[in-house]
Amino acid sequence: MKRGTFRFNLEEKTLKAMISIYCRRQHAQDDRLCQDCGNLQDYALRRLERCPFGDKKPNCAQCPVHCYEPVMRAQAQKVMRHSGPLMIRYHPLLALIHISRRLLTKPPVKPKAKK
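The structure assignment produced for this chain is given below.
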């Protein structure tokens, strides 16, 4: 997925919002992220840029390709489980878009490895 596209910007906003909610509520941070949450955000944005599905990227929970390292994946799941239900309250439009994409799109088939 290329930086600057509408889809990338939407995914980036959703990701940053979820990590921000988690950090603010769990680590008592004000406007900035703690080091662990900042590292997770940087890692997740790098993964988003390199997504093999590009603009047809599904929600990560539906994705057949698990591109996160196991430790980062566990941390991301923890953040999403905590922040997901709170998104309706803090960022209702992003939450509705995220939910509708999950309900209305079929997960893509795993791309074949390039030779």
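Interim note for the steering committee: The mean pLDDT is 88. DSSP finds four helices and no strands in the chain.
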